[in-house]
Specification:
6 helices; 2 domains; Nuclear Transport Factor 2, Chain: A; alpha+beta
Length: 243
Amino acid sequence: MKSPGLQYFDIILFALIAVFLVLRLRSTLGRRNGEEKQGPTDVFGRRSHEDDSKGATNGTRQPTDNVYRLPDVDKAAEKEEGTVAADSSTFGVLQQIQKADPDFTQQDFLNGARMAFEMIVEYFAKGDKDGLNPLLSAEVYKNFAAAIDARAEKGEREETTLVGIKSATIHDATLEGRTAYITIKFVSEEVSVIRNNDGDVVSGDPNQVIEAEDLWTFARNIESRDPNWQLVATETPEEETAE
């Protein structure tokens, strides 16, 4: 039987070991200091003034309740590529949008549009209608869903790899009542093929990278509490009318 002195020594020893393990875990996993941003923001980077005062943390592309968090941007290296010059007629419209929605900036919108483009291309290729639904207007979703269903009926599947977005520029902007419309011109590099159930290529070339140009129009009620923009029209620069 241990003496009381030895028992107390064991207790102190175990306590020291426990403190050591806690410190090791904190150094390895880090600790919250109350500065972290607790909730995700939408795909177009809209942030509340409270969030601005606290600062943002790095985000991910993972969807959560149809709202998406933008990655943090290195402000020192950020370039204003794709934004509209102050002498453009479109700039006046964008100023009106920003006046109605102080959280709106061209650069944040472009960052979000790039992310939306990547997600929509990915979801469409996978045939993920649930993923597409919150990102598209009812009419565009109907067209995308019909194309996915037609592909499935033929026993075909699409494989699209987005190599990268070469550029995304604001092409046009209009304000109709409370609804803002912003059209982005995307120039991207993709590898896209369609295969049948046997895995044979029906169209496309899995070894060829193609350059694609698209005009996508996003819309949002700027007086709504819902911060999300939706894709309302798609076309190619050669086309005169949107789908």
